[in-house]
Every structure is written in C-alpha cells, then in structure tokens.
Amino acid sequence: MTVNLAGFNVDIENIKAVQSFCENGINKEEIQKLNWTPETISASYARISRDERPINELREQARTEIDKARRSNNAIIFEMGHSSIAEHAAFNLDIIGVSRYLSEQIEKSRLASFTEKSQRYIKIGTDYYIPSEFDEATKARYVKTVEYLFETYNKLHEMLVPYFESQNPDLKPGDKGYRDLVNLAKEDARYVLPLCCHSQLGMTVNARSLESLLKKLTLIRSAEAAELHKQIEDAVSGYAPSLIKYTKASAYQSGMFDAVRDLLDTAHSMTYDGDNDPAMVAACLRQEYAYQGVQLLDFDKECIDKVIAAFIVRYSDIDYKEAFARAKKTLDETKQQIFDRLYDLLDQHDSVGREFEMSDFTFGIQLSASAFAQLKRHRMATIIDSEYVPAIGCIVPDSIDAVGGKEIFLTAIEEADAFYYDTYKQYPGLNEYILTNSHIKNVILKCNFRELVHISRLRSDAHAQWEIREISDKMCETVGKKLPMLAKFMSGKDKFKK
Fold first, then answer.
1. Do 272 and 374 share a domain, yes or no?
2. So what's the pLDDT on residue 265?
C-alpha cells in the first residue's frame, strides 16, 4: 500500500510569489520564506468573526506568523471546540494498493469525495491483499482460495464476452460502443472477485473529516487499516500539525458495542463454532433466510402535507404550524396541480427543492457488495450496513447462468464460504477479506424524497449497473404506489419526461 499526499489548498499569494520569481527571477529570499500549509487559511478565517480587518490582511498576518497561526488553530479548534475551522483545509490523497474491503470502509466517510478504480471498466489482474495476521497454514489456504476465485473470474470473463457479442451482433471490434459491450463481461464476471482485490482511489477531504476517518480506522481489526492510518497520518501531519490532533477512537466509539452487547439479541449464524462442515452449515443457514431485496419499512404518511406546508412557509409570513393546518385543508386536486407545475419546470439535472426534504422514507435492502459499492456513495442518506453474511447467500448475474457458468460460480463461492466459516472464531473480521462482490449484506437506508429523486436519476438510469438499477427501480415503484402524486418525479435520466 502507498499513500501519497497529492495536494492541499494553499494561500494564492504563495502561488503568485512563485509565478513572480519564475517570470522575473527576483525575490528568491522571499520564496524560501514561504510556508506551504493550509493552516494559514484556517487560522485567518478563524479570526473573521472577531477581527474587523479585511480577510486578505488576516491571511497575510497568518502567512508571516506561522507559529502564531498554529497556536491559534490549536486553541480555537481543540480547546474552544470550533472544529469547523479545520474544514477550511483540504487534502488530496492518492491511496494505492488498498483492498476493496478496506476501500469500502474508507468511502463511508460522509463529507469527502472519492474516485475509485472501477472493476466494471478495468480487467482485474491477480493482485490482492493477504492479512499478515494469518498463520502459515491459514495463509496458504487463503492464497489457494483467492487464486481459485481469480481463475473463475477469468474463465467467466472468457465465457461472457462472446455471449454479449451474440446479444449485440451489429457491434464489431473497433465499432463505437463495442468497448461498452466488452465491459458488460467485466461487470458480471467481477461478482466472483474477492474483497481482498487491490484497488486504488483518489480522496479529497477536509482536515476535520480526515481526523474522523483516522479515528474510524483504529476500530477496524486489521493490519491493513493500521498501515493506512499510519501512512495517511505521516503524509499530512507535517503540513498541518495544528489541524489534525486526535486520531484515535474515543472510549465511546471503541466501546459502544461491547457496552450493549449483552442487551442485544445478535446471536444467529455468526455463532458458527467450526465443528461442523462449513458447506453444510451454510446450506442450512441459507434456508433460514429468504432474499428480501427491497422493502419500504416506514414512511411519513403526512409527508405530502408537510412538503406543501414548507412551500407555504417559504413564500409567506405564516409559521409552520399554521401552514401545516392549511396544507391539510388543501384539496388533493390543488396539491397535484402544485406538483405538476413544479415537475414541468424541472430539467433532468435539477434537484427538487429542499421543501421535499420534509418527507422521510426508511428502506430495508439486501444487496451484493457490487451494488453496495454504488449505494454507499449516497452519503447524504443515512446508511446502516451489516457485515457481509454468507448465510444470506449471493447474487448470481443472469448472464452467468445463461452461459452455463452458474455451477462454476457457485463452486468458487462455496470455497470462499468454507474459508470464512472455518476461520471465523480465530480471525473474526479478517475472514471477510475472502468474501466476494456477490455476497449479500443487510442495509437500512433512510432518506428524504429529495435524496430519493437524486438516487433515481443516477441509479435508475439505463447506464447504471443492473443490480443497483433494479434496487432503485423497486424503491421508486414502492414509494410511487404509496404516494402517486410524487411518482413521476422519480426516474433515471434516460426516462425523465418520456
């Protein structure tokens, strides 16, 4: 694994000074005195609320008095608790050679931006993470199982390319669109790839969110997470020592599950003791589960009136209580006319108004790691996810069944499941590295209608990955039946107003 600090925000005056030196060859001494750190931006902005001087003068003082700026940051952020000051500093990080398993944990950070290597568009080579905690016998079995999964991936990919070519006979190599056709084979073959596959991602994150991520990494029981924590901290600490200080999980974060464990009924398939044949245990446990897909668990039945009330508040001098009373008295015909007019104004790239955030929906979703990779990007929603549980089963793409590859696929999955169950007690958490993109987890997703519309634009679109598209379509269909006034707002970009 390698972490590179690719960049961070600096005061524009530093850049101007370098440009002046390059153009005129003067002020070399001044160039050498420049402090290359985002801390001066944070320190100067922190003073805005209590110093009447223009901001550019505050920035100049921070640039020339770096030690004072750092003391100020430390006092304001960590002693006074104004943590938002750290958000004025942003870092760009290359994270190379990280496992898919760990990248999933990283990308749960709500206020950060990520771009990750896509297994949908890139043919994956045999490059993966091996937990250093494994003893030699476990490591040997792990490597053998992972290599088998990669062999299956390559075999399935070879079977799927001609299949998708036969589905699109007019497309030939070199034609526009042929690459998209070949990518369909990668997209479905990857379902058998293990979560230990190496990936890489670019991350842009402010100092406050980065400190939060570092804390969360200490909660993950793996040497890989510990190494990532160290490399990120080493990469940024020299440039921003006054902005990132507390990088270990708090007692609450590290102890909250243990504190309530005895009060929770969590006993189920996860208590497998390794005494029975893992394949038989997995088969028995799967009988206890029925794949649920998408369920609407709860929604606000007064959400239509709440949305209408929010519009009344925005465009009048009426308070919400009175506005809600008026909204409830408004005829359904009038409500529909309001939504129709708003819909007519929409472009496919528009977000609906914040008034639609007055409505909440809670979904229970079972989905594969492949689909969760898409869903977790909707970080404005509340997403509570379980570990991957082999007992629930796995998703087998229809194309793999169509080419006669289902038995090959499931045989490989059974090998992964067997390793998972056999090592559960000795290596809890680490055994998840062997699970695949096809394995299913349980997710609770809570979002408002505005976010649901956004999800539908991206995930119900024809270009979306097929499993996440099916999930998004089901979410929208279910909500549309409950709230027909709002149904047409939800669709992919390709179907918008068609």
1. yes
2. 62
